[in-house]
Write a structure and sequence with these properties.
Order of helices and strands: EEHEEEEHEHEEHEEEHEH
CATH architecture of the largest domain: 3-Layer(aba) Sandwich
Shape: elongated
Structural class: alpha/beta
Number of helices: 6
Largest sheet: 8 strands, parallel
Oligomer: single chain
Helix content: 25-40%
CATH superfamily of the largest domain: SPOUT methyltransferase, trefoil knot domain
CATH topology of the largest domain: Alpha/beta knot
Length: 228
């Protein structure tokens, strides 16, 4: 069944946005009387029946409502790739796999220093609906590395390619930790030192040298698998 997004669902707004309505009308060609599902991206999901629909508005009545407790999922701070397509691919797959927060970080070796927040949020929303999830991950604005380190209050797991005593990903690590993935030129030694001073654990992602977006997806996949 088709899933739509209405963030004000709990406030009694039983109408889709113009953008969601356009998708319902032009792409799916839905009509009054048909059933849909609607999520607020914060755990509430309803089975609904379309009451009225036009080119610009779509109203619905709730038939059944369920509430899902917020799952405990890893967070990831990742330096956006030079190729925006690769970064958006990462965003899409991260949502599908399971992530609670994503913080794009600006590192010393970052080649991409500008992000369009609204475009990235649309990618996340589309992935949430496609994967039938009830929680929309929080997307932070592009944040400098130093500001991220200062404000992150969960355990930090930093992945890098330099020689060090690293810990393998395991179920002994906290599921809601921040996984840190650097730019395509990796974190600098100074950035790693700063993270370690903040209590970060250096993690091992295997012998292969992974691209930034691949490292992020690999780490999220393993952490989600280990939590069962």
């Amino acid at each position: 069944m088709h899933l739509f997004y209405q963030p004000e669902l709990q406030n009694g707004l039983l109408e889709l946005s113009e953008e969601e309505t356009r998708h319902a009308v032009r792409v799916l060609r839905l009509n009054a009387g048909e059933r849909i599902e609607v999520s607020d991206g914060k755990g509430v999901r309803v089975l609904a029946q379309i009451s009225e629909i036009s080119k610009r508005s779509c109203s619905f009545d709730i038939l059944k409502q369920t509430t899902e407790k917020e799952p405990v999922l890893p967070k990831i701070a990742l330096a956006p790739t030079k190729s925006i397509d690769r970064f958006e691919w990462f965003l899409e797959k991260a949502v599908e796999i399971g992530v609670s927060e994503i913080c794009p970080i600006l590192c010393s070796n970052s080649e991409r220093r500008i992000l369009k927040q609204e475009r990235s949020e649309k990618v996340l929303l589309a992935a949430m609906k496609q994967s039938q999830r009830n929680w929309l991950p929080k997307l932070h604005e592009l944040t400098s590395y130093s500001d991220f380190i200062k404000t992150a209050n969960e355990p930090l797991l930093i992945a890098h390619c330099r020689d060090a005593e690293k810990v393998r990903l395991s179920n002994q690590l906290q599921t809601d930790s921040w996984i840190m993935i650097g730019a395509e030129g990796d974190f600098t030694e100074g950035e790693i030192e700063v993270a370690i001073k903040q209590g970060a654990t250096e993690i091992d992602l295997g012998k292969s040298r992974l691209r930034t977006e691949t490292a992020g997806i690999f780490a999220l996949s393993v952490m989600n698998y280990l939590k069962g």
